[in-house]
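User: I'll paste a sequence; please echo it back and then give the predicted structure.

Assistant: Echoing your sequence first, then the prediction.
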Amino acid sequence: MLLFHKICRIAQIKQVVKFKRLFSTHRYLLAAKTPDVFQKKKSPYDLKDFPPERIRNFSIIAHVDHGKSTLADRLLEITGTITANKSNAQVLDKLQVERERGITVKAQSATLFHKYKGEMYMLNLIDTPGHVDFNYEVSRSLSACQGVLLLVDANQGVQAQTVANFYLAFEADLAIVPVMNKIDLPGAQPDVVALQLQNLFDMEPNDTLKVSAKQGLGVEDVLTAVIERIPPPLEAREDQPLKALLFDSDFDKFKGAVVSVAVKSGTIQKGDKIVAAHSKKAYEVQELGILYPDIVPTGVLYAGQCGYMVAGMKTPAEAQIGDTLYHQASPVEALPGFKPARAMVFAGVFPMDQAEFPSLRNALEKLTLNDNSVTVYSDTSPALGQGWRLGFLGLLHMDVFNQRLEQEYDASVIMTSPNVPYKVKVTGPKNIKKYGGDEITILNPCLLPDPAIITEFKEPMVNGTIILPDRYVGDVIKLCLDRRGVIKDQTYIDDNRVLFRAVLPLNEIIVNFFDELKSVTSGYASFDYEDHGYQLSPLVKLDIKLNGKPVDELTMIAHANKARKLGQRVVNKLAETIPRQLYEVIIQAAIGNKILCRATLKALKKDVLAKCYGGDITRKMKLLRRQAEGKKRMRKIGNVEVPKDTFINVLKR
């Protein structure tokens, strides 16, 4: 028996040794064929060889679907950063939501190396989003650049976001290189688009580059124009103290915050002790490098260069966008930051199950580090439990954020209907002391003070820019007036297209304004908006009551002229979704004590006459009267339990 066990043991050892040899050989063969799997990619050049004179930092800006990501793909291929392949599409769009929707959500950087007239140049490219909701990503990206490529579709021409992006670059005093894309398509109108650029931006037609990013036509000329027409960062000098601008951040589950930096002066190396000017916290640089287009550690970044850095930052508060980094031994004055993101739309976010609250909190912390434009406030709801009220730059931003929560962190959330921030003024010394001032910003309608102490309401307004064919002007004017808009002016940008400006209440455009605009203009109109401050408005607090008791979660702020219509919609929805009770339920929409509309949910009646057979009719009448009295008593003392599903159906977008 002992001999048998020894033989088995020897056989097991031989099998293990054989397996180890086989695995070792297999790993060696894999490494020989695909060395990048086991070895980190290295930079093809020494960054020391690139003084500021041979560095160009630029962004690509455009309207949605004008070909920014496609042009970025071709630039990466031509410079040898990625392998030239027809299957390369949206290489810099790394998020799943970006590939599914075909749009850029987050700005992405990449370092290119290109030889021009015998000298090698370092080109730092930033591909930016085109939708108005991600305008903050564009403004942050421009802070790290000296010039931009203004991309325009040769078929669609100048669009609303093209105008907005041009003025962002113009106000930042950046060099602007106009590029006309998709000239190979049958519907291209390069002469008409060139005229639009000249009329709107005073750009000479001869200065506009004509390319087809998909086919690669004329893309070499774009690289030449970047080197010749975009200035180098000559103000960056290595002999000065370190000043690095933190213009973006991302989250890595192993490294923490991975921040993007633009070195304005000095040199930063791995192991350096640095300080963040905003928080005054000190960090040690753990990793440093360039994006080629994936992270490539170099251990050093010189003046004028852009790259990534890992320094042990863990939270959004530490990785403050727009912050200045400097050496601990050489304090400097902070660089002028850019305007922080201003939330335009707010919505409540709650976990489907309160047991998931801690995991959802961790997911929000990580995702807001990746998307710094989202503002987060704690919130509670009697119906939905603990949660947060999040501020977004727009409806698409909110929708994308919700999708990323589900896809990247497997979070199941309830997102309530969006609302905008209002401002109210209160009267009385006690009230002013209670609220910390006479003007209060209301993010949640449930927290609105008593209307009796409010002296004035203000709602946010926006400057809307609409570009459309002139034959739809009448329909668009009617749409704007229906949404309480005020028409400012209209200008012809060519023979058939009109640039239209109007001031609109933000609350009127966040839900379905863009869909209706596309409908009345057969899909030809483009829309963009920017903040226009607050304006006095006759707003009211709309309460939804069940048997005379207000439901806080359904409280809304509405314009006085539209309160009845909104209340009727909510009342009808509640009447469809609330389960019937043993007593009658009256659903009302009210402003103060004034009832605007109502619906009645009939009671479930027990058949009390089922066992009453035969006998006089008075016996049956007695039973029915007793039942009616019982239901009346029950209605006085009973509470209508509104299920969570009902709140979800009424509050969801």
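The chain has 16 helices and 31 strands. Confidence is low (pLDDT under 50) at residues 1-8, 13-39.
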